[in-house]
Design brief:
The protein is an alpha/beta fold. Helices cover 34% and strands 18% of the residues. It contains ten helices and 16 strands. The model has no long low-confidence stretch (mean pLDDT 92).
Length: 348
């Protein structure tokens, strides 16, 4: 069996390649730049997925596709929109066109994201399960971070509940919109091609090889970079934003299960740890694991309009449909990450 992994030189993609090679699968990597993370056991194709000739060459002779190539993160502001659409939407369309022209109908796994849910699932004490409205600038400026009930006449703060895959999508930023469109494009192609499409909605992924020192990096990497430079992690809002942080090795294993388990049902799956934590928890876990002499987190009250307050996944469908249950605990994963990103003078 030969599997194409697009974006296989990147953070998550390179771990997927490692896991596939360990499973005895032949792997072809398509990426714009070869990095030291690329497993030497894999065949490497250098090129841009948006180039039709490159895409056609990459899909030739493969039995399954794992589509990890993507521009990720919230970004800087809406000026990033063209780049997100070009890399995520157009790149996916060119890949699917190449598969269509090859009459490919093998298994296709898409790296999607929990950002498609928006604020996820919320509950009002009076009105039950409701969809939170986008937060208002005036509320954020005033430090009112919790979403409030959208029912007219009610403004009670909402509590979060685990979001399931059948929740209505509600993308709140450009990246989220492109990830949902990727899902729609892949599902449309899959129906017409007779192919099994699995979309894995990653929650907050962290671990070795995570990008650093970029506005597109995840919060775990941003905190670790600050600590590595001797600075206190800057925690936005009040630090009580709830997330699910899942280790990249678990994410790679979920991809392998989705690719190699022919009995796995097509569709969308949350890929999460099932053990939600606050953003503040992450900052403190990293600083404490880094040692007694590093700065402790600072809660700043700053905010970004495109951020959602809480998004926590239900991992039950992935357990039942793919056999995926996360194995790396929060404490283990954060301690490992902190050690890897410790300043050189204190690294062990």
């Amino acid at each position: 069996m030969r599997v194409l992994v697009t974006g296989g030189a990147g953070f998550i993609g390179s771990h997927v390649v490692d896991a596939l090679c360990d499973a005895g699968v032949r792997v072809r990597v398509l990426d714009r730049l070869r990095t030291p993370s690329v497993d030497e056991r894999a065949e490497f194709v250098e090129g841009d997925i948006r180039d039709p000739a490159v895409a056609r060459s990459a899909v030739d002779g493969v039995d399954a596709v794992c589509h990890q190539a993507s521009k990720v993160g919230l970004g800087v502001d809406f000026a990033d929109v063209c780049d997100y659409v070009a890399q995520n939407d157009v790149g996916t369309a060119v890949l699917l066109d190449a598969l269509w022209r090859r009459a490919f109908n093998g298994r296709f796994v898409l790296a999607s994201s929990m950002v498609v849910y928006g604020d996820g699932r919320c509950r009002c004490t009076d009105h039950g399960t409701v969809t939170a409205r986008p937060r208002l600038v005036d509320d954020l400026r005033a430090g009112r971070f919790e979403p409030r009930c959208p029912v007219p006449g009610c403004s009670r703060p909402l509590t979060w509940e685990p979001v399931t895959e059948d929740a209505a999508p509600d993308p709140r930023n450009t990246y989220a919109a492109t990830k949902l469109h990727q899902e729609h494009l892949c599902q449309t192609w899959g129906r017409e091609a007779g192919a099994a499409v699995v979309a894995l909605r990653y929650h907050n992924v962290y671990g070795p090889r995570m990008p650093r020192d970029t506005p597109y990096a995840g919060v775990v990497s941003i905190f670790a970079s600050a600590l590595g430079q001797g600075r206190a992690p800057q925690v936005f809002e009040d630090g009580r934003q709830m997330r699910d942080f899942v280790h990249v090795r678990d994410v790679a294993r979920a991809n392998v299960l989705a690719l190699l388990n022919d009995n796995g049902e097509p569709g969308v799956y949350n890929v999460a740890s099932g053990s939600p934590r606050t953003v503040g928890d992450v900052a403190w876990a990293l600083s404490e694991a880094a040692g007694p002499h590093v700065p402790r987190p600072e809660v700043t009250g700053r905010w970004r309009l495109g951020d959602v307050r809480h998004i926590v996944a239900s991992p039950q469908r992935a357990a039942a449909g793919l056999g995926f249950v996360a194995q790396v605990s929060f404490d283990e994963g954060m301690a490992e990450f902190a050690r890897q990103h410790a300043p050189a003078s204190r690294a062990h």
